[in-house]
Amino acid sequence: MHSPDERFTINARDGKARVGVLSTKKGPIETPFFMPVATKAAVKYLSSEDLEEIGAKAVISNSFILSLRPGVEIIKKTSNLGNFMNFPGINVTDSGGFQMYEKKFWIKTSEEGILFRNPFSGEKILLTPEKAMEIQLALQSEIAMCLDCMPLIENTKEEIAGAVEQTTLWAGRCKEHHEKLQKHLPQQQRQLLFGITQGGIHSDLRKKSIEDIRKLNFDGYSIGGLALGEPKEEEYKMIELQKSLLPEDKPLYLMGAGDPLELLEAIERGVDMFDSRFPTQNARRKTIFTSQGKVRIGNKKYATDQKPLDENCSCKVCKNHTRTYIRHLLMQEEPLGKHLATYHNLYYLNTLLEKAKEAIKKESFTTFKKQVAKAYEN
Amino acid sequence: MHSPDERFTINARDGKARVGVLSTKKGPIETPFFMPVATKAAVKYLSSEDLEEIGAKAVISNSFILSLRPGVEIIKKTSNLGNFMNFPGINVTDSGGFQMYEKKFWIKTSEEGILFRNPFSGEKILLTPEKAMEIQLALQSEIAMCLDCMPLIENTKEEIAGAVEQTTLWAGRCKEHHEKLQKHLPQQQRQLLFGITQGGIHSDLRKKSIEDIRKLNFDGYSIGGLALGEPKEEEYKMIELQKSLLPEDKPLYLMGAGDPLELLEAIERGVDMFDSRFPTQNARRKTIFTSQGKVRIGNKKYATDQKPLDENCSCKVCKNHTRTYIRHLLMQEEPLGKHLATYHNLYYLNTLLEKAKEAIKKESFTTFKKQVAKAYEN
User: What domains does chain B contain, in order, with CATH numbers?
Assistant: First the structure.
């Protein structure tokens, strides 16, 4: 038995891979899990009813973008983000600063916070760590993220070192403000807060970031600024480093990872949570995840293919529709094509993680991963 | 009892309004009915499963556009259009010439047919009446339309007179070719063919067109070149004229009408079939059909409205989602917003026609229409 204050318990292990349960104010969720991206309170082309059918138990939204449109006040009128979307699962929010790093929005980053130009109104907005906490608490997501300072891919090591330092300072301010604002609530009703580490693929910087963030004692830890296209070996090395330095009893979240094989490699290294636009964006761009690997449905050879997207899939789309039809819809930019492909890709990924959990429970995860790898390495 | 060759039977009447059953090679369909537009073999933002839930028993597609992409051969590989879409209902096809009257596609119309520039490949294509029949027979829709010559709104009366004459000549060629190609089939397995009348709102031209087309003895008659934005009184006058001159035992189809009240006015005058992009396009443009009339959901007053789109609607969308959420999605151009609004508008329209049929059976159609009119005249 664990104390009621313990928010994360491990129920099965296979090597570093593990199945756990994370308790949130809305209820428990089994790990590892993948979160479809619902930036503006909707996964592109899918309803909350679709997500339920798919088995998606959590989604991640961008709290900063939601604070601009429709605005926190409007969502609060429906009580919270989960009710606004009518999503029965767990709502996770990111502080959202990272998406504003586009040149047209971003003005400057200082010790104080990130200064943006509001893309809707043109006015300047300063997103501070404190403000990021207030927004996420107002939305009442189950899990919130600290405001981090994400270095850009083109940044020098010195610049990344600066971002690491900034991220730590902001994490401290986030933690303090978040705690203060929730002091009055019993533990079980509190929003969880995750710390984010940075450091790119520089082991020394990443190590410093992990050690600094760990000291602040968060409910979970997120690996930021990774899964951005760096070599997979570098990515996995950083995950291993993070895993070795973080407490075993806290969930580990790899931000931005959504490639099927990448998820399994990360799970094997002890990661518990994922989010990414990869499966949904791939679907819209005609790349389908299947038990036989990726199918680029735009390829002419599928033009008269009467098979479902994946013969081994039991999702609604694979039961009802053919490759020839879905290919036609995607080629003609029919919205229905994007809907069907998105539904299938997320169903595939969710089912993959269900199977991964089964394999961990049976201590056969390595065999399972190798089977999937075979299809995806073709 | 009616002979097996009789394809249309009337089961209830209330004034000129009537409930009938049209027999097609795929099975019977009760009239009056409304067909969502599935130009490229998909209703925008809806799957065939959605259409089944909504209760849509028929859709109309553009056979000419489908012959360009994906091409008739590809659809034939899946046997036919209905199977390609996995739509269990009745597939109706239009010859599709009318959509090619955009300046960028249309080259010229001659006695021979309509010459287009293929928008995909740039090559010239001649759509003849015979070709239009061959395409629709290859797609195996249940109901086909003649190739008609649609005058443009800006045309003079003389030009419209020319279009009427051309339409009659083409109708004769369509009928002859269609009959020849289906001679080998038993009556019950044959595709139905509808003749289309033209003539704008000129009573003399419309009368001539109706009389000429009627002589060719089609399975049903379509009113073309109406419901284009002309004054409602003119539209209704033309419907009444058409009704008075056409055989009672054939279905009458008003092409392009989809406004709730317009449908009821037409049903009252004896129309049996409708199609239009009006409800789906309105949904995408934030106009919602409800029991209280049209709701322009973009209006700020709905920003925090916790009610469903229509409090008296029992569709999935109204059961699960609020105006505040759907408004947010539509304002942010989230595809889910368009899906939800489209689903509701078509459900509303289908339910309206179900109620209209009930009212006709109970001989209370006029009262029913007045109730709806009250909401829509606000």
Answer: 32-276 (3.20.20.105), 284-377 (no CATH)
